[in-house]
Amino acid sequence: MFALDSDSRRLTEEKKDLLISYVLVLTLYADEFRTDPSDIARDLRMSAVKLRAHFEHLGCKLVSQNKVTMATLPVPLTFPRLRQKRRR
Fold it and tell me: Which BP terms in the Gene Ontology apply to this protein (predicted)?
């Protein structure tokens, strides 16, 4: 599942993204589906901006409260519906 790339002995970018997603899901679960992205960004040694995109891909809403941005996962989780093109 997380096999290393045979040529460079490093994880591929897709596997890194998958691991980051798993870490973020566990963080949300542990913090009752509400967490501060800057804390986990510091732990993962990533920028908060890059981590913000990962939270959005998971379906989180980013809300600013008291000058602190919080990522919250709304329950029940609903993803935006795709708009279908109208036939002419």
Answer: DNA-templated transcription
